[in-house]
């Protein structure tokens, strides 16, 4: 949730996928009975994935304010498309061989530890090229429409980073720390329209006490500990009021013949002046709206409840089912905020209407039910690529194997992949769950301090 962090209008929000708090699932959570598949959020994303350059800070003497100016000479740098960890980018440009073949990984610089040791719990070797921070840099065009707010989003940086835009530092490692956090920055005042803009990040690998990516025995840990920009980066725009964190919860009756939906989102006034506007929600032809006034700089969770809007009481709703039990019916809610006749911002969220419950049997075993029907959990563990290299074709093939083996669940061992995985699970009619024991042990040894105040690290109210 973006919260103002000072005069530079820096915003940091906790990831929708904070792995030690939320069960990870496509459409089913074993602890949270009703949850949207994914907070799709703003609908006007411009991805910044192409034409990046990468270099070790040990090889670069320039500073961040210099590197983040358009036209800086990066001829000697590595070329990369992101998302990519540092080692992933170096494999992609053939600096290193493919680690999935033979003993190639052992030949990588920094792989001096024994394979019997858990590298995540060790200090980075002094002679490792990844003990230094690494620079990521790109250039981009500013959003075309003047007057809009421009938001820079990072869905995953491992582990810490300093960030500059056009020679101005917008965040440092006290703001950007955490593998599974997502970040959003209002960079409007740092952009120049009509000319090229530049972005530079100095990224640091996790240390042995950080709550980072831990492969344990699933994969050998790469020598960079998966440092880098490992998830999507994009720009969005909005008017004075931004719409964030769209969410739909569902409550089914005892016979599962009716459902009550609650649609919510955060409306955030980024201006200094009070704003009067109208939040709108649309779902399967149902149109809802309500007036709202926000003070300057204020935020509010807007809710459309079935008590306010009886149209949100659905008779005989199409429920989401795992495969072998029914169809994976999905719905999409669209939200927008209007000021006068102008749309300030839009957002959407895809979700399934379903209810998950559990109980103990007379033998002490856990029995799960989906929409009142018993479900036998048949699953196996899941791990992403060693370097978090993304392939939609491979994902499709892997999930096809899940169904071919008649499994209905995959277990995520703390390494949460892109939202694309969750969306694919939702449409494939498969379940997802996370694994806790190792994560609890890791938390026990972590020195990653909890947030010092609710404003630094919070989620929208969900009641």
List keywords for this structure.
3 domains, disordered N terminus, six-stranded antiparallel beta sheet, Jelly Rolls
Describe the protein's topology.
Elements: E1 3-4, E2 11-13, E3 38-42, E4 46-47, E5 52-56, H1 64-67, E6 78-80, E7 84-85, H2 86-92, E8 134-141, E9 149-154, E10 157-158, E11 160-165, E12 168-171, E13 182-186, E14 196-204, E15 228-229, E16 233-238, E17 241-252, E18 258-269, E19 275-283, E20 286-289, E21 292-294, E22 299-304, E23 313-315, E24 331-339, E25 342-351, E26 356-360, E27 366-370, E28 373-375, E29 379-382, H3 392-404, E30 409-412, H4 419-428, E31 431-434, H5 437-445
Parallel strand pairs: 29-30, 30-31
Antiparallel strand pairs: 1-2, 2-13, 3-25, 4-16, 5-6, 5-8, 7-15, 8-14, 9-13, 9-16, 10-15, 11-12, 11-14, 17-18, 18-22, 18-23, 19-20, 19-21, 19-24, 24-25, 26-27, 27-28
Task: Put the structure in a nutshell.
The chain is mostly beta strands and 463 residues long. 9% of the residues lie in helices and 35% in strands.
């Amino acid at each position: 949730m973006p919260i103002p962090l000072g005069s530079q209008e820096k915003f940091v929000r906790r990831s929708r996928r904070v792995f030690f708090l939320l069960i990870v699932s496509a459409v089913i959570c074993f602890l949270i009975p009703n949850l949207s598949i994914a907070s799709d959020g703003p609908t006007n994303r411009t991805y910044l994935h192409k034409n990046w350059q990468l270099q070790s800070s040990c090889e670069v003497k320039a500073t961040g304010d210099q590197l983040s100016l358009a036209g800086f000479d990066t001829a000697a740098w590595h070329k990369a498309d992101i998302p990519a960890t540092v080692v992933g980018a170096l494999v992609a440009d053939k600096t290193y061989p493919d680690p999935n073949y033979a003993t190639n990984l052992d030949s990588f610089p920094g792989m001096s530890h024994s394979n019997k040791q858990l590298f995540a719990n060790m200090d980075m070797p002094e002679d490792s090229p990844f003990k230094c921070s690494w620079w990521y840099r790109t250039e981009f065009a500013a959003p075309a429409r003047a007057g809009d707010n421009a938001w820079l989003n990072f869905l995953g940086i491992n582990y810490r980073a300093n960030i500059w835009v056009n020679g101005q530092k917008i965040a440092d490692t006290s703001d950007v720390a955490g593998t599974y956090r997502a970040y959003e920055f209002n960079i409007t005042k740092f952009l120049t329209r009509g000319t090229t803009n530049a972005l530079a990040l100095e990224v640091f690998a996790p240390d042995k006490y950080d709550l980072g990516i831990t492969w344990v025995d699933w994969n050998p840990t790469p020598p960079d500990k998966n440092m880098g920009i490992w998830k999507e980066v994009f720009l969005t725009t909005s008017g004075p009021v931004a719409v964030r964190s769209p969410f739909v919860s569902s409550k089914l009756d005892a016979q599962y013949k009716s459902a009550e939906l609650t649609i919510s989102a955060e409306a955030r006034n980024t201006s200094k002046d009070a704003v009067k506007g109208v939040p709108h929600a649309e779902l399967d032809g149902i149109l809802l709206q309500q007036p709202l006034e926000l003070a300057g700089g204020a935020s509010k969770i807007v809710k459309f409840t079935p008590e306010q809007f009886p149209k949100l009481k659905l008779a005989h709703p199409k429920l989401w089912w795992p495969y072998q039990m029914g169809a994976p019916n999905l719905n999409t809610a669209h939200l927008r905020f209007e000021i006068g006749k102008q749309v300030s911002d839009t957002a959407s969220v895809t979700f399934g209407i379903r209810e998950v419950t559990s109980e103990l049997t007379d033998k002490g075993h856990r029995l799960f039910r989906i929409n009142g029907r018993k479900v036998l959990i048949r699953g196996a563990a899941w791990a992403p690529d060693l370097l978090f290299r993304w392939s939609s074709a491979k994902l499709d093939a892997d999930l096809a194997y899940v169904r071919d083996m008649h499994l209905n669940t995959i277990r995520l061992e703390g390494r949460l992949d892109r939202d694309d995985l969750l969306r694919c699970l939702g449409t494939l009619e498969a379940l997802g769950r996370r694994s806790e024991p190792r994560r609890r042990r890791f938390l026990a040894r972590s020195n990653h301090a909890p947030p010092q105040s609710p404003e630094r690290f919070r989620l929208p109210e969900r009641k």
